Amino acid sequence: MKEYQQNYRKNFSLIITFLILITASMAVAFYLAYNLTTKYVENEFVSQKIEVLEETVKPYNNFFQKKIPEISFYQGYLDSAQAVKYVDTIFRKFKFVEKIVFYDAGISNHKIPDGVKVNNFAMAPKSVYQFARDIHIDSVLLFKDNQPSSSFSLKTGDEFNKMAIKFTGFIESSDTTKTLSDDDRFNIFYTITSNKITFMNIPRREELKMYKDIMTKELPSSPVYEIDMLTFYLNPQKLIIRNTNPEIYQHISIKPLVYESLANDPELLSNDLPLSGPFSDYKLYFSSDKGYLMREINRRFLPIAGGLFLTYGVLVLIGYLIYRNLNVNSKMFKLQYDFVNNLTHEFKTPVSVIKIAGNNIRSATTLSDRERLHYGKILDEEADKLNDLMNKLLSFTQIENKAIKLKEESVNLEVFSQNLIDAYQLKYPDFDIVCKIDGIEYFKTDPVLLGSIFQNLIDNAHKYSNPGKKYLKISIKKVKKSVVMKFSDRGIGIPAGDLENIFKKFFRVQNQYNQQGSVGLGLAFCKELVNFMNGTITVQSVEGKGSEFTIELPYEI
Ligand code: ADP
After folding, report:
1. Confidence of residue 112 (pLDDT cuts 50, 70, 90)
2. What is the pTM of this model?
3. Is CB count within 10 Å lower at the N or C end of the chain?
4. For a substitution probing ligand 1, which of 342, 456, 506, 509 has the most ligand atoms within 8 Å of its CB?
C-alpha cells in the first residue's frame, strides 16, 4: 500500500512539475510575443509614412504629370476664353492650386517695350490674366499691351521674364535640328520653385527652327508667333492628407521643414518626411500618443495571446489526460492489490477452518454423534465455499474468453424463482424476499447462467442491507420483445459517484459490509453474463434508501 501511495505522489509531483514548466514557458512566450509586437508597431510607425506620402501627393503627381501637359494639346494657342475653361477644371479638381497666372505671349523680331530681347528675337507678353477661386472680375486682367494705362510690373513680369530668359538661352545655344529630349522638356519648359510651377507650352520642331532663324538672321518683319505660359501658385497646406494607417498615426500635418515640435512630451512619438518638388520647404509631420500606439499593440497582440492561451489550454488538457491515465493505472493497481489480498483471505479462511476441524477429528479419541455431525457440517460448508469461489473465478475466465456456450432451455420462471427464494430463506431466515411475475410463464434461456445472475444479486441485496431491513422484491415482466427483471432492495444504497464503476472488475465501494470476503467480482460477473446473453444490466440507487438493478434480456419462447 505504501508503494501505491508513493506511486500516486510521484504522479502528482510529475503533473505539478509539468504545469509549472508549461506555465513558465507560456509566461516567457507572452513576454516575447508582446515585445515583438511592440517592436513591430514601432517599426511600422517609421516605415509606413512613405505610403502616407505617396497617397497624399498622388493628386499633385496627377496634376503635374497629366494636367499641366494638357496645355500643349492647345498647341500654344490658348486664348483667354480657353484659358478660363482650362483653369476652371484645375480649380475644381486640385484644391492645392490657389492662383494661376496666364501669360498670353508672342515671339517676333519686332521692337518690344516689355519682355526679353536677344538679337532680333523678342519675346513679349500680349496680355496677362490671373485666375483664382474668389477673385473679382476686375482683377482678372493684369496687363494688356495695347492699353496705354496697363503696365507690365516687375511683380507681374517676374515669372515670365525668368522663363523667357531660360527659353531664349535655349534657342541661342540649342541645335534646333534635333528633337527635344525628355530632360530638355523638363528643364526648359518647367520652372519649379517654392510653391510655384511655371510652364511654357512646348513648341514644335519647325517653330523652334523659326525662332532660331529670327534670332540669328536678319529677316524682314515677322508675324507674331503665339506662345503661352502659365504660373501655378500652390498651397501645400491644402494638400489632402491621406492617412493610410490611422491605427498607427494619430495626427498627420504638413509643417514647414524647419518645424520642431515644442511639446517635449515623452509620451509623444513623432517622425517626419520631407515633401518634394514645389513643396520641398515642407514636410509631413506624424505624431501619436504612446497610449494610442499601445491600443494598436494590444489589438494586434490579442489574437497572438488567444493562440498562446489555446496552446496553453491544449497542453493543460494533455497534462490532465496523462494524469487521469496515470490515476486510472494507479487505481487498477490498487484494485488488483485488494483483489489478491481478498482472494487470499477468501481461500485462507475455509482452508484454516478445514485444517482445524481435521486436527480436532484426528486428535479426538472418540467422537460423539453431535461432534461428528458438527465437524461434518463445517467441512461440507467450507468445501462448498471453496468450490463456489473456484467456480466463480473459473466461469469468469471462461465467459471472458467466450469459452462457454449458451445451453438454452424453456424455464418456468415461477418454479425457477421460487426454488431460489426457498433456498435463500433457508440460508438467511432474516431475509424477506418476494417475487412478482407478470405476463410471462416460460422463458427460453440458460438456467445455469440466469441462476448465477440471480444468486449474485440476491446475495448483494442481503449483504448490503442493514439488519432488520433485509428485504428484496423481484419483479419479472414481459415488455414488448424483452423480459425485464427488477431487483429492488432497501439496503444501504450506492453513492452516485460510484454507480458508473460498480460493474467494473474488482471495484468495491468502501463500506463496512465488504471489508471481508468481497472481491468486487459479483456485479462484473453479472454484467459479463447478461452481455453474453445479449441483454443489458443497469442500476438506480439512492444512498441510505436502497438500490434497484434492472436486467433486460431478449424474449424467446
Ligand atoms: P462485492 O464482491 O464487493 O460484493 P460486487 O461486484 O458484487 O462485489 O459489488 C460491487 C460493489 O457494489 C460492492 O462493493 C458494493 O459496495 C456495491 N453493491 C453491490 N450491490 C449492492 C446493493 N444491492 N446495495 C448496495 N451496494 C451494493
Report:
1. confident
2. 0.58
3. C
4. 509
Show the ligand 1 pocket: residues with CB < 6 angstroms. Answer: 460-461, 464, 489, 491-494, 502, 507-509, 511, 514, 518-524, 547
Cell of 214: 529670327
Helix, strand, coil % over all residues of the chain, rounded to 5: 50, 20, 25
CA distance 414 to 447: 13
State pLDDT tens for residues 139-169.
Answer: 788 888 877 667 777 777 889 999 999 999 9
Kindly report, residue by residue over 463-515, the tens digit of the pLDDT.
Answer: 999 999 999 999 999 998 999 999 999 999 999 999 999 998 778 887 777 65
What would the grid cell of residue 545 be?
434508501
pLDDT in tens, 237-286: 999 999 999 999 999 999 999 988 766 778 888 999 999 999 999 999 99
All three cell numbers of 177: 535640328
Distance CA 368, CA 353 (A): 20
Alpha-carbon distance 434 to 490, whole Å?
Answer: 13
Edge-to-edge strand ranges of the sheet holding 282-289: 251-256, 282-289, 268-274
Q: Which domains does the chain have, with CATH numbers?
A: 55-238 (no CATH), 405-554 (3.30.565.10)
Kindly report the CA angle at 529 between 432 and 383, in degrees rounded to 5?
Answer: 65
How many Cβ atoms from other residues are within 10 Å of residue 204's Cβ? 12
β-strand pairing of 471-479 with 432-438: parallel
